[in-house]
């Protein structure tokens, strides 16, 4: 028996080593030259894709972070040339979504509404990329993209947590900015989804620990940023998203459907704050007649029955909404983008069987990034590109990133913030994003440096062709507004 167990152990060790992924190089870079046309003008640019180490206190490389850096090559004045530092979310997601979906010079070919087309993974020039006005670096945190822990004895908690993530990436950025000689450049952080938690914390960490000051932070489909909203507030804030999605799927009454979304949503927002929230706050003390009146209005806006709303004490979860809204049509709706439709095994139940939108995106973006990096950027490796990597357990405690961003704004009169949200995003909905801005600035002292932009898309605001152009133009405008002229002092 002992011999059999020993043989099994030997076989396990042999095969685990045989099929283990190789480590990426700790420190390397591959550069290529390209041209494209953006907003009608020919742009020459260099691309550098590589790995840059993370060192411990003894100077040993314990991990390496993968990045892709796009730099316009026909601009010599780097002092006034903005640098945009881009992250995605997850927290275990690579940066491919923003890089080949939104702001980069080469993007995935999709149809006009953002659905994949075959052959999968075909790339095209992005005529709306912000590379004409700013250089961009896309960063893959540890265990995403090609980034990996190199020393297997390293404590993973150094990387996998709200504050650990912010701390090591701030130090990494100090080295990166030094290497590319961009300390004088105006700098911007842009993050999507959990990336908004990351960049909100980084804004203060870069200032206070690395002495690197920013001109702007862009939050795309932001999380709650550690700003609590529980009980009645959490319940009520969902309704404007419900209304937008029901309107899109023509699930509202004819009087509601006749209104444009820009007319409907302000009306729903007013009802949410002024009527729904006070009602659910008062709970059981509200007379039944009043409850029925509020439930009837909520039902008209949400596209589901008054009876269901009352049965659930106004607490309609997003998961239930994705299953319920089109149940009578035998369809479910997507979580990250509720324009997408799914089909479940059965129409009964409380939640969809799968995320229709993510299934669509994965089988179009994954082939594209693997082909693009290897064949166009000439970065050849046997290391697996982690579209989603394992970063768990992730320490979510002590998340004060929203307040960190406010503090960074207070310390830095140059710093501006812009939010970009999709109306059909059911994971990080647009009205919660507005709530973030309200709570970050309760005294209204920073309103002249805060802005909100909404789009008729979902979580990935750039998936729809019309909004890809609009969102990039909004970034251009934001950069132009927050890039300060020479000689203007940073003071109140």
Automatic annotation (TrEMBL):
Q: What is this protein called?
A: S10 family peptidase
Q: Which UniProt keywords apply?
A: Carboxypeptidase, Glycoprotein, Hydrolase, Protease, Signal
List where this protein forms a coiled coil. none
Task: Tell me the leader sequence span.
Answer: 1-20
Is-annotated flag, keyword Cell membrane? no
List the Gene3D superfamilies hit by this protein, alphabetically: alpha/beta hydrolase (3.40.50.1820)
What is the source species? Answer: Olivibacter oleidegradans
Statement: the UniProt record of this protein carries the keyword Membrane: no
């Amino acid at each position: 028996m002992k011999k059999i167990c020993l043989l099994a152990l030997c076989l396990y060790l042999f095969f685990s080593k045989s099929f283990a992924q190789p480590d990426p190089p700790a420190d390397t870079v591959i550069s290529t030259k390209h041209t494209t046309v953006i907003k009608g003008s020919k742009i020459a640019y260099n691309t550098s894709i590589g790995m840059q180490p993370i060192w411990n206190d003894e100077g040993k490389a314990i991990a390496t972070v993968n990045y892709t850096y796009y730099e316009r090559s026909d601009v010599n004045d780097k002092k006034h040339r903005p640098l945009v530092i881009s992250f995605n979310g997850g927290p275990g997601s690579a940066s491919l979504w923003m890089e080949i979906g939104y702001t980069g010079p080469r993007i995935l070919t999709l149809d006009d509404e953002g659905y994949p087309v075959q052959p999968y993974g075909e790339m095209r020039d992005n005529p709306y990329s912000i590379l004409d006005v700013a250089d961009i670096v896309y960063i893959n945190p540890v265990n995403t993209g090609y980034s990996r822990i190199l020393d297997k004895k390293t404590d993973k908690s150094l990387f996998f947590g709200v504050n650990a993530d912010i701390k090591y990436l701030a130090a990494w950025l100090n080295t990166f900015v030094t290497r590319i000689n961009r300390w004088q450049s105006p700098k911007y952080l842009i993050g999507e989804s959990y990336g908004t938690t990351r960049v909100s914390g980084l804004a203060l960490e870069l200032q206070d620990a690395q002495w690197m000051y920013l001109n702007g932070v862009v939050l795309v489909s932001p999380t709650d940023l550690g700003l609590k909203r529980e009980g009645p507030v959490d319940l009520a804030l969902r309704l404007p998203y419900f209304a937008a999605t029901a309107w899109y799927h023509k699930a509202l009454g004819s009087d509601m459907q006749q209104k444009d979304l820009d007319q409907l949503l302000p009306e729903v927002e007013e009802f949410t704050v002024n009527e729904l929230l006070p009602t659910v706050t008062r709970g059981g003390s509200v007379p039944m007649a009043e409850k029925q009146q509020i439930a009837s209005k909520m039902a008209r806006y949400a596209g589901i029955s008054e009876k269901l709303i009352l049965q659930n004490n106004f607490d309609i979860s997003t998961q239930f909404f994705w299953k319920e809204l089109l149940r009578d049509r035998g369809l479910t709706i997507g979580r990250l983008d509720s324009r997408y439709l799914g089909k479940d095994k059965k129409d009964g139940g409380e939640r969809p069987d799968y995320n229709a939108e993510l299934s669509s995106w994965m089988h179009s973006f994954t082939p594209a990034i693997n082909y693009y990096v290897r064949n166009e950027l000439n970065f050849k490796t046997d290391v697996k590109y982690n579209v989603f990597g394992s970063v768990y357990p992730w320490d979510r405690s002590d998340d004060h990133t929203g307040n960190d961003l406010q503090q960074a704004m207070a310390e830095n009169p140059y710093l501006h913030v812009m939010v970009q949200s999709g109306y059909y995003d059911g994971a990080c909905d647009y009205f919660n994003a507005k709530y973030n801005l309200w709570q970050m600035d309760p005294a209204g002292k920073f309103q002249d440096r805060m802005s909100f932009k909404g789009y008729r898309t979902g979580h990935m605001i750039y998936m729809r062709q019309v909004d890809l152009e609009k969102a990039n133009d909004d970034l251009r405008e934001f950069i132009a507004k927050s890039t300060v002229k020479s000689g203007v002092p940073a003071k109140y």
